[in-house]
Design a protein that fits this description.
alpha/beta; 4-stranded antiparallel beta sheet; about 35% helix; about 15% strand; 2 domains; Aspartate Aminotransferase, domain 1; 7-stranded mixed beta sheet; Aspartate Aminotransferase, domain 2
Length: about 375
């Protein structure tokens, strides 16, 4: 199979990540929950991963790096755990449903209001985002990179245009690992991450947050600390981490972060640029992705619906892509593709011309 669905989950994991998971599976104690030597050793490794997260993403220390089941959970904590009654939020048309649905849930309850920033020629302008800020705006949410088109936004420019009291939440699911993201340099208050995409790990999420924000817990239970206290601990990360951590997933994330820190060469910008030029020559397709470092290439056939086209690529050519709306309905409405959807081919940093050529050959035949 030619796997081109890496924007959903990276298909091939590096050897060091695989080895770390296998080692963790051989001897897997509960990190930090018991007092024996193995539990304490695992807890030390979990702490090392928190420190590495903070280092790679310019965070605010290990205690403000919280592990979650997914980036979706991280975003839910960032929104439901921070916003209060009467708050106003600015989101963008490129946001994923992991942002839009929590916001709509809070709005339906009458707790918050929110506005959506439109696109300007397919992209987000910092000045347009800032123009939607109101007196009661508590938080601005901007995706680091669109999961539909790969478009990114100048986060530093956004922060400079926001009032100091407004929090900046960044959905780093697609961008993290593909290009530098530093919370302190860009003025990011909350950064949600997905380990299983550009960070080369298993399915795991993380939420990093600054000392300007103190999220409330959404999940309540055991933490291995203050066990006599029937309320959640007041300190982080314990306050937001109920239950047993996924030690194998954390081990995989640690190794993936080491690869990102070492600066794995990313040729996806030039790859998507070359791919767009070749597909444009075929004439049967509309292209919606600019060249991007996330390896996302979205397009549609002028006659065949996107989900049907994705099935053709899978069944006839054994090429895995994703067709449809990609859980980002407002992005598709803005692009005019809500009815047809798009076909998204997404490459990993481990792929290149071989995979691109296979896709081009299939598109040539299907474009006739």
């Amino acid at each position: 199979m030619i796997y081109l669905d890496n924007a959903a989950t990276e298909g091939t994991k590096p050897r060091s990540v695989r080895n770390a998971v296998m080692s963790a599976m051989k001897v897997c104690a509960n990190p930090g929950r018991s007092g024996h030597r193995l539990s304490l050793a695992h807890a030390e490794h979990v702490l090392s991963c928190r420190n590495l997260l903070s280092e790679v993403f310019g965070g605010y220390g290990f205690d403000r790096c919280v592990f979650t089941q997914s980036c979706t959970e991280a975003l839910n904590i960032a929104l439901l755990g921070v916003l209060g009654r009467g708050d106003h939020v600015v989101a963008t048309a490129l946001e994923h449903n992991s942002v839009l649905r929590p916001l709509q849930f809070l709005a339906d309850r009458g707790e918050i209001s929110y506005d959506v920033v439109p696109l300007t020629e397919g992209t987000l302008l910092p000045e347009t985002i800032a123009a939607h800020v109101k007196e009661k705006t508590r938080l601005v949410c901007v995706t680091a990179a669109s999961n539909v088109t790969g478009v990114s936004c100048d986060l530093k420019a956004v922060r400079k245009l926001l009032p100091p009291h407004v929090l900046l939440l960044v959905d780093g699911a697609q961008g993290a690992g593909h290009f530098p993201l530093s919370m302190q340099e860009a003025g990011i208050d909350l950064l949600a991450l997905a380990g299983h995409k550009g960070l080369h790990a298993l399915q795991i999420g993380a939420l990093l947050f600054s000392d300007r924000v103190n999220p409330r817990p959404l999940l309540f239970g055991g933490t291995g600390s203050e066990s006599l206290n029937l309320s959640m601990p007041s300190f982080y990360p314990d306050r937001l981490e109920s239950g047993t951590l996924s030690y194998p997933a954390i081990c995989s994330l640690f190794e993936g972060l080491l690869i990102v820190k070492a600066g794995k060469k990313n040729d996806l910008l030039s790859l998507t640029e070359r791919l767009a030029a070749r597909v444009k020559e075929l004439g049967a397709y509309e292209i919606f992705s600019p060249p991007n470092a996330c390896g996302i290439f979205s397009f549609r056939h002028r006659q065949i619906p996107s989900e049907e086209f994705a099935s053709l690529l899978s069944n006839r050519y054994d090429i895995a892509v994703r067709g449809g709306l990609h859980c980002a309905p407002l992005a598709h409405r803005a692009l005019g593709t809500a009815e047809s959807g798009l076909v998204r081919a997404s490459f990993s940093v481990w792929q290149g011309e071989r995979e691109a050529n296979a896709l081009i050959c299939a598109l040539k035949e299907l474009g006739i």
